[in-house]
Amino acid sequence: MPSIGASGRFNRKGDAVGSPIRVGILGYGLDRPTTGIARYTLEVMAALRTHEPGVRPVLLRPFPQPVAGEDPAATVRLRGTARLPAMMTAGPVQIAAVARRARLDVVHDSTGVAPFFVPRAVGGFARVVTIHDAVPLLYPETQTRLTNLLFRRYIPHALPFVDRVIADSQATKRDLVRLYGLPDERVSAVLLGVADGFSPRTALEIEPVLARHGIAGPYVLAVGSLEPRKNLPALFEAFAGLRAAGLPHRLVVVGRTAWKAAPIFRRLEELGLGDAVVLTGYVADADLPALYAGAACFVFPSLYEGFGLPPLEAMACGTPVVASNAASIPEVVGDAALSVDPRDGDALGRAIQRVLEDPTLAADLRRRGLARAADFSWRRTAAEHAAVYAAVVGAARGRARGTPRTG
Question: Could you count the other beta carbons within 10 Å of the beta carbon of residue 162?
Answer without folding.
Answer: 19
